[in-house]
Structures are given as structure tokens and as C-alpha cells.
Amino acid sequence: MEKEKNNVIVTTVMGEKFSKFYDKFFKTSQIKFSEKIKTDFVVIDKVIEESNKHNHPSWQKLLMFRREDISKYKRVLFIDADVYVTRHARNPFDVVGESIWSMAKNNPYNLPDYAKTDLELYKHCPKINRPDYMLNAGVFIIKKTHLRIMENIFYEYGEQPCYDNGPFSYHLLNTPNGIILPTEFNVLILCYFKAFGYGLSSVIKVYRESSFIHFANGPMKSISALYIIKYIDTHPNSILTRLLYLLGNKRLDFVTVPLLNQMNKIIASYHHRIKKRMV
Q1: pTM of the full predicted structure?
Q2: Model confidence pLDDT, tens digit, residues 70-122
Q3: Of 14, 242, 244, 253, which residue is the least packed, with the fewest Cβ within 10 Å?
């Protein structure tokens, strides 16, 4: 019998279209990070178990310990496929210690709109002990000893807004011996921009401050930021990177905000035309 290993990084990538997008923007950063911290990396690309209650791929991570290539590990760091891991990322395993679970807040900047909609995601959860804030399941660490938490969510809940996020947050926050993961390990890019602005200064700021940058709710909404972050991360010493840092001054936001907005529209339109040709 193979000896149980300590840690593994896991992501879920399903569907041909998203797989190509993942390969282009996120895959390399995640693999390089796993190599950097000397931790195995597993991609879930097939449904583990079908359900008549829900069908979005997000639910499949709740059963990940069913896979033989994952069940041999004591602890999993799960990273959504739309998370970019920066070259300067810290190791979250070193941060959480022996905690049973760890997950970051969905609204660390206390934005009023998010605060209201977050609590609505507990609608299908038990009314007793409902938390007053939400966690985001795009990045988390959990021990195999508590796989039942995830499996129970998979079987008890049906499809709903944000999929498993509401139930997952509810049950973790009602499970002792867990900790809140520092925001740097799951920076929701749209939430960050809403808190700090949409200019190039915010793009540079979020890159410098973050370990994991999460392009949730559709990467196309912030596609220009994704291109810039990926470029400066992979070309740290280039002339263009130095120019981007110079232009990433807060005083130039009046220029860079409309410029990035226009870039988003152009890039999104280009990707849409490419998709139509492939149909």
C-alpha cells in the first residue's frame, strides 16, 4: 500500500472551450507554482459523479477525494481554473498551519453591494447559525479527514446561484478549527477593482500585493487586466513592463481607465468572433 502523502494542489477544468482558455492564461502559472513549492498538481477534467440535483462542474470538487490520484494525500489546496498564480506567490500551506480548513472572505473590502448579495447565498442553508459574511470557494485548503463536509454538500443541495459556494461557506464556518485564509490567496479581481478603481494603477497594485488573483464571474470582464498581469509576471525585466509600471501611476487613471475599458471591449469582441468561426 502506497504511503499517504502530505499535500497536493488540485484544480477543475472541464469543457473544450474553457480548457483552451485555461491552457492559454492560467495553466502555466499554476504548474510553475506547484513546482516552486515542490507539491504535486492534479487536474480534474472528468465528472466524478453525475447528479440529478446539479450539473455545473463546480460541484465536482466536493468529491475530489474519491479520485485515487487525490485520495492518497492528507491535504488539498484547491485552486479554481480561473486563478492566476503570481511568480512571487507565497505558500499558503505555510500560512494555515494544521487548520482543518481555510478559505478567504468573498468581500474583504466590505463593499455594501457584495455584503447584501453574499448573505442571500445562504437562502438554501439551515436558518440556525447563519454567518454574517461569505467565504469564496475559489481557493481553499482542506484536510481529507473532513471530506464528509464536502460530500454532504454535494448530496444535500441543488443547483443555485454561485453553485456550491453558499452551502460550502455555511458549513465551513460552522465547523471548528478552521481559519480565514488571507485575502492575498484569493483576490477577486472585480471586487478589487470596485474597491480601488479600474485604472492601470489598480492592475499594478493588485499584482504586487497578491499571490493568487481570481478572475471570477467571467475573465472577459477583466480581460485587459489579465493580459497585463500575465505579461508583467512572465516578462519582469522587459522594457514594456517598465513602461507599464511608469504608466501605472494613480494620477494617470483618468487616461488608463477608459483605455483599459476600450481594450476589454476590443479583446472580448475578438474572442467572440473567433468563437463564432469555430462553431
Answers
A1: 0.94
A2: 999 999 999 999 999 999 999 999 999 999 999 999 999 999 999 889 999 99
A3: 242
